[in-house]
TrEMBL record, chains A, B:
PANTHER family: POLYPHOSPHATE:AMP PHOSPHOTRANSFERASE (PTHR34383:SF3), POLYPHOSPHATE:AMP PHOSPHOTRANSFERASE-RELATED (PTHR34383)
Gene Ontology terms for molecular function: polyphosphate:AMP phosphotransferase activity
The name this protein goes by in its record: Polyphosphate:AMP phosphotransferase
One of the GO biological process terms: polyphosphate metabolic process
Annotated keywords: Transferase
Annotated Polyphosphate kinase-2-related domain residues: 11-233, 270-490
Record bears the keyword Transferase: yes
InterPro entries: P-loop_NTPase, PolyP_AMP_Tfrase, PPK2-related
Pfam families named in the record: PPK2
Origin: domain of life: Bacteria
Length: 494, 494
């Protein structure tokens, strides 16, 4: 969930000054348009980690937008009047009418997250509350309210740095109190709870937007652009006569163009000798783990995704070499059969789930929904938007039933892919591996990149993490995959 | 939830024999059409009370439909193969492909209801499971699956009668075991759990259809007609190019035309003397209850609905006479103001919620959404279909916050309404009370009747019951209202 936000994004002052004036003008234009037509109301939720710039963002919005049509509501402990009524009453009071924007700072997510992180709320009652909130937000969306939910994030190190910085200056020292340091101590717990809450409440009608809160310029531009795009898209939909509920909010690209994929250093060193040695050791550990008594009560689901020629097949063979043929199945996923196409898209994966004690290795997987189907337009935006939550639910069910789920994205550079394509064409026994489709897909690289980043951000969960594999060097990639897998298995089976 | 199903519906053998042949032919036609075009898959869920005819209905469907395109799956305890995989795996295996119908007998609702009724599952984990099921069904619906969920119901007395009848014949005696009687002992608990589960999982995309299971002929026709109508409507939507998710299933009229309203005896005896005496007593008890210390921590929300001239105003005055002016507010609901129309429809009720220790009396209410707005087409079918769950959520929040919610439907006959309209026209000081709108609404009576019955079935919950008031005699109606209110208050405040 927080993968992209922890990359360390920033925008220089100069970059910011180029972007800001135009962004402000555009925001004002769209705000005026909204107010004039009164098609719908906008509710902006501001949540996140202490010190990640929530307050500053609210101030900025006030400064950027026409203050007559934007209203900020900050909620603290309920007042007497509020406490005398159902908990949601104070939020209903603050809802903006059609044509206006309401910013809710300290909203309906604060208590569930805080109480759960503080240990005052158990898992089941938390989920109960979250499903109430989902129903509430679905109702608002069905009533035509545009919900934009921002989560301002800081990594653990980022939060510490921020507190230190505030303390070091006499002008801001007063802003840091013992409570802030106490909160910092709980960071990991809070992050874990926040991840769960965000995942459960990131719905097709109201997805969360996670903002890296480290750099003020970056943060401001990401918020401004997201807001602008959401408003423009909704207005477009409304004017074209679509019902608002039909719009699935787009996922927004990072203003600094830094993303999970381009942040990787794809060519990593490893020579044949080191590879052979590591491979032997890891395969031995893998065989041992899968033959253990503990594994007899579990199962293993492996997912391999990556661009063509990223080395999925080779990596899979290095795993299966260590296994008993009766224990595993490699399941290559291509276009669905007729029988599969007549069913919900997850059906063909459900039917291939391994029994206890077995291993299923998916060479491509259910993630096709948010990769090839999104990119090629085989399904609608609403369909792939809802798929993130559906896939998370699916993997949760696997994990609850005892499966270990390990997912790899093999990342190869465009140059390396080209070299491999050419090599394949010239080697007789590999020629079948290269088709016109591969060349066509290669041209869609720029469309796959955001799809992959969104996929990782929205489906890398504590239950089923994604591992990004730098795959220009096959030796390095295979060893990283085996090591990740073996470490995970040993930790789980311990 | 079970109000209509506990009315005691039946169809004679002769009636059944007139209806059946045509119904079977129509069902076969639509099944063939579905199979030929393969637009979508149909999943029929069969659930309900023991002895309410679930098995018989499954047999009947098999007999009526073309068996090549309908598949029945009965689930019992998970087999070894099933237990080795996530719990939902066995249901995924049984999903029908597009063009076919799957009947799931003993499906994903059996465990949550059984475990909760048996005390093995707490409230919060139950709700957690139900929201998982809602997400699962929403996903199926979004994938184009038509879900038809039947709940076969028997009243407590009905279940006893059925068991006795089986026992009395040597041919069926073997079918009744001690377990059945044990289950009967738990009837009330089971009914309460079932009500909660049905309410939580009756969604716009997959509402429950509750079938009175007492009479085999009635039951068969209701199931057959519901299925036919759902299939026809879905086919129509699909062929017209609407997305399947846009269809909200209609609520089906009872085949025997007996409903909650026409089952009432509207003119009940009560003379002025008895009325005066009862009124004085009840008003005294009401005043006492509302001045108690216990009430200072609660609030009271009263809802009055009914056709024009049903006597809502008069009944409300008999309540307010007993109250301190500072303690209550009467809130007449007419068309929304501009400010209200710019907000979600529940907003104008949230803003009028009473504080602790206070009383809010709504003369018409949020139920306008499923009454006038439905009948007049002021909102779409999808909008009023989702309103039932939204209203239940709203009232749950009121009750959780300590409010007592009491709802009255005042039922007046068409003749009595006419007499009152005429009387109003002739009395100078009441002439303002009759407008052309009233005459117009009167003509829509046949449209209001099903809307009222659906409303009561779908929003009469253990938290906030509806009381139907026979209102042709004003004295009787006012006393019934006051008595219901006072009894409820005294029970809660005790």
């Amino acid at each position: 969930m927080f993968e992209s936000a922890e990359l360390g994004h920033r925008l220089s002052k100069a970059e910011y000054e180029t972007i800001e004036p135009k962004l402000r003008t555009d925001l004002l234009d769209v705000q005026f348009d909204l107010f004039e037509h009164k098609d719908f109301a906008v509710v902006i939720l501001i949540n996140g980690i202490d010190g990640a710039g929530r307050g500053e963002t609210v101030n900025l919005l006030n400064e950027w937008m026409d203050p007559r049509h934007i209203e900020v509501h900050a909620f603290d402990r309920p007042t007497g009047e509020e406490g005398d009524r159902p908990p949601m009453w104070r939020f209903w009071r603050a809802l903006p009418p059609k044509g206006k924007i309401g910013v809710l700072f300290g909203n309906w997510y604060v208590d569930p997250i805080g109480e759960r992180a503080g240990g005052r709320l158990k898992k089941a009652p938390l989920d109960q509350r979250l499903s109430e909130l989902n129903r509430f937000e679905a109702m608002l969306a069905a009533e035509g309210v545009l919900l934009v939910k921002f989560w301002f994030h800081l990594s653990r190190a980022g939060q510490k740095k921020r507190l230190k910085a505030l303390e070091s200056s006499p002008a801001t020292r007063w802003r840091v109190q013992q409570a802030d340091w106490d909160f910092y101590e709980q960071y990991d717990r809070y992050r874990e709870v926040a991840e769960h809450v965000l995942r459960r409440t990131s719905t097709g009608v109201a997805p969360w937007v996670i903002v890296d809160g480290t750099d003020p310029q970056y943060r401001a531009v990401q918020v401004g652009r997201t807001l602008l795009e959401r408003l423009q898209r909704r207005i477009e939909y409304v004017r074209k006569g679509f019902r608002p509920r039909q719009t699935a909010a787009p996922l927004v690209a990072a203003p600094d163009e830094r993303n999970l994929l381009n942040a990787l250093v794809l060519s990593q060193p490893m020579d044949k000798k080191a590879y052979d040695k590591a491979l032997e050791k890891l395969q031995g550990r893998l065989a041992l783990a899968l033959r253990s008594d503990a594994f007899a009560r579990r199962s293993l689901v492996l997912v391999f995704e990556g661009m063509d020629a990223a080395g999925k097949g080779g990596a899979i063979r290095r795993i299966t070499e260590a296994l008993d043929t009766r224990q595993y199945q490699v399941i290559p996923i291509a276009a669905p059969t007729d029988e599969e196409a007549a069913q919900p898209y997850l059906w063909r994966f459900w039917r291939r789930l391994p029994q206890r004690g077995k291993v299923a290795i998916f060479d491509r997987s259910w993630y096709g929904r948010v990769l090839v189907e999104r990119v090629e337009g085989f399904c609608s935006e609403a369909d792939w938007m809802r798929a993130y939550a559906e896939i998370n639910d699916f993997e949760d069910q696997l994990v609850s039933a005892g499966a270990v789920v390990v997912k790899f994205w093999l990342s190869v550079s465009q140059d390396e892919q080209l070299a491999r394509f050419k090599a394949r064409e010239s080697e007789t026994f590999k020629r079948y591996k290269i088709t016109p489709d591969d060349w066509r897909n290669r041209e869609k690289w720029p469309l796959y990149e955001p799809a992959v980043c969104d996929m990782i951000d929205r489906t890398s969960t504590s239950n089923a993490l994604w591992t990004l594999v730098e795959a220009d060097n096959k030796y390095f990639a295979r060893v990283k995959i085996l090591r990740t897998l073996v470490n995970k298995l040993e930790a789980v089976l311990e």
